[in-house]
Amino acid sequence: MMISKPSPLTPAGTGHPTYTQSLPCSEESAGIARLSVAATLRAWGLEVLVDDARLIASELATNAIRHAARHIPDPEQRGCFRLKVERPSDHLVRISTFDRSRTIPRIIEASEAAESGRGMAVVDAVSCRWGIDPKPWGKGVWAECAAPGHLP
Prior knowledge:
The chain has 152 residues and is α+β, with helices and mostly antiparallel strands. The chain is built from three helices and five strands, in the order E-H-H-E-E-H-E-E. A five-stranded antiparallel β-sheet has the order 1-2-3-5-4, with helices on one face. Strand 4 and strand 5 (138-146) form a beta hairpin. The model is unreliable at 1-7 (pLDDT under 50).
């Protein structure tokens, strides 16, 4: 048996880690987005961010799905949205969704009896910052969360 010695060369990173997935614009995709984000952060050793990141992913995915449903009522014609999870630094994660709707999400004050409308308020409360990237074909919506003591 031969045991090789480690190479004297140290691998150099070519950027920050990213996970991306296309999901259908259907209700079950919000749950898949939560699971995907949690698995990704655990693989990166960022368990401390899992709860907040799952909540952000759920709200962003739900918005992407709802806007697709509003513009295209037939579930078979709605297409997909894109989920992206990035780690721009060791303690910061960015969760994004990309969809074909040009409707810009905003924070609204939902009444106590309202069954929806709180999604972006939740994202705003849980994330350290969030934003919108308009695209010619739709938009990207992103939110970042950082490990405690590591705000950007």
